[in-house]
Protein 1
Amino acid sequence: MNARKLFTVAAAFNLLVGVPMLVAYPVVAKTLALQGPPTVWFHIVGAVVVLFGYVYWKIAQDPAQFRPYVTLGIMAKMLFVVVIYGHWLAGDLSGRVALLVTVDLVFALLFAAYLRRSAAAAFARPRHAQERN
């Protein structure tokens, strides 16, 4: 998968997850087997997910220019995975949430593969192109 497609798909995924977290809690709660009303933390997570959707969309527009943000995306996705899996293993979350965040694990691995593939090209760019970043 080329970088533009990868990050476009990642952006779409984040928006498909984040927007319902912000505006359709009853549907999200039923789908993911969440208990209780939404908290401010739930909505903050939804907002961060949407924000990263925008970041992935920007990377998709110009992967070379926004390449430094890919590492941030990997870190964010892996932090979500670690936190969600930890709560799932502790019995605090349903397996549905853990299954959903597995998509983040796949994206983190794909983002890392992109960084490895594109490393030589990033270093080969002319110095003035690197200074744009």
Protein 2
Amino acid sequence: MNQENINKINSFLSYHKWCDFEIVELKGNLIIGGKTSFENSFDIRIVFEDVFYIQCLYEWKTDTSKDSFLIPDIEEQRNININYSIEQGYQIFKILAEDIDYPLYVSSKSITVELL
């Protein structure tokens, strides 16, 4: 299910010329919202449920011409797990931000997405 939601996010992004994300809320869950226009409302809302670890910016831009939300390969997950003692049962998600040299990471139980 997590990979399906990652695919849904990347598919949504591929239909837009740009998308800016920002943290909307962080209280157990991490909620980020994405905007594809200059309107005040979000076009996509992503919820990382039951967050354990975050390495993230408050706001960032995405390159919508390529996949920006990923599940890291096993070796990358292992390195993060070792360095940050991620508990078993949490999934690591990788976010690639435009013009940022290093990925953002979120470790949570699951991810859900809502297109608004």
Protein 3
Amino acid sequence: MSEHIETEKAAQLAGEYFGNGYHCAEAVLRALLDTMGEDSEHIVPYATAFGGGFGETFMEACGVISGSLIAIGHKYGRKQQGDNWKEAGHLGRAVVERFMKLHGTCNCGLLRNRFGEEEQMDLCREVVIQGTKSLATILNEKVDEDHASTEQCQEKCTSCA
């Protein structure tokens, strides 16, 4: 990825997708891919079973985390067996750490119980929007780091010539 993701656009799309038939994991993934100009049609189905805290059990990770990790894997995952996975791992850790800092848990069921039945969908939508912003920010920071590293390398090469 070489371009910045339009953070607000991605977040707005995620909120719309969540409110119009996609669950949290699907909404985050589709919004991010669509904002990046990627074909989401064939990738979003990978997120379907992750909704509702893994298979609608409400016992595991919030779908915002799952959708974010699928997006990271799509962009930074290993392309061949044996390739290094540290880049994707570090980005995934950043998503989880930021989510935990904001919400104190990644557990879907705990979040839903905290929100209460009446406000659960509205508050989950806010988590989807915020999580998409967070993911876009993390990926944009990665782009900035890559650009800075490339510029440093070019400066070194120029000074050696």
